Amino acid sequence: MRFAGTIDRVMAHVFDTSLIHPVALEAGELFAAAGFELSLVGGPVRDLFLGETAVDLDFTTNASPDQTLAIVRGWADATWEIGKEYGTIGIRKGNEMVEITTYRAEKYDANSRKPQVAFGTDLVDDLFRRDFTINSMALRLPSLELVDPFGGEADLRTGIIRTPGTPQASFSDDPLRMMRAARFAARLDIDLAPEVFEAMVDMAERIEIISAERVRDELVKLICAQAPRRGVDLLVESGLAAYVLPEIPALKLEADEHYRHKDVYQHSLTVMEQAAAQETGADGAVPAPDFVLRFAALMHDIGKPATRKFEDNGSVSFLHHDVVGAKLTKKRMRALRFDNDTIKAVARLVELHMRFYGYGEAGWSDSAVRRYVRDAGDLLERLHRLIRADVTTRNKRKANRIAAAYGDLERRITELAEQEELDAMRPDLDGQQIMEILTLKPGPMVGQAYNFLLNLRLDEGSLGEEEATRRLKKWAAEQGL
Fold first, then answer.
1. Per the database record, which ranges form the HD/PDEase domain (predicted)?
2. Same domain, yes or no: 130 and 17
């Protein structure tokens, strides 16, 4: 399967040398003076042809790690040797953190998650071992001679992802490259060569030898890319998603000939796209790209396969799919070794994405609006965007009605926030005051009293300390205090 696409920016016919960082040129002079080769390699070279300044500087050299340390001594502000075993020396020069790696070749044993590394002596051999031709270009330093033995520049220009050797050999050396293929297709919005996609299909199962952490990191980059829908689609169609994110291909529910419902898989991809389109810039409430929002959008309906029910009237229901989906999201993200804060945030958005529906028909009390804000917490801005992105109906009247209802809810939230400083959402009395009023020592009863006052605040707004004290004493008497 091949996915059409083009790079949506103008590639420079000749890269702008002003984009090359001065540190790269200085390092080149340093290694040349010592009689060794040094080249800027991989992503930084690719990005030069896209008119971008490289964020990370990666170098390759024929110097051994110990020789590299000797060459940069006195020039580098700091060095570290954590990757020395794999030929990599880290360097800090000014504000720049760079890595210099000895020419090498690496591959994975059939049942190993760790690469076997062998150092090399030739730049072209080093480039051959790299993942894709667009990343197999080097710029010799300080001469700025382009070394492109596998046609990376041409592939970048035509918008195609190929491997320097056979994709089977490349993916066998490092199966994570199959996910990287999908990620680069998503980042640059370009095609996979047919043979690359076919190899992904044939070898998808091999992704299981890769650690969950590496899979997670690649997935995050894919979701945060320019065209995440393309990347997710590639994972699903190649079969990789069945191993790393099986809940997504499971959304391809088969529609019974007598029961009709929308394509949940395509709907989820559309919601992810629409959510990404609603991200704001770096100074906005949800800076782009936002993994939590995008991933929640992708996962928001994963509870539907488990909750689908065909009703007698011919309709299809998915009762409580939001709650089930939140649990499934937590389980999958834990398996991928996400941190607890990210897991909680994504799962909470999945759980809350249906809370709004019904507002337009029945309306909500001020208490219900307060609870909506309280339950969303610092995810409120993301929840706003997820709810709006979840509208994919082609029925313009229905879409407009939902948009108007949610606009009204947002207006009410703003008004209540202005009136009550809703963001703080604290009771009128704090824990210390509760203990003084009820002559309590720290313990569970203080927490119960606090929750009582918090619920009062949510239901009735701020009561003031005097009324809150009266209510607290009455509650305490009812508790037998």
1. 260-434
2. yes
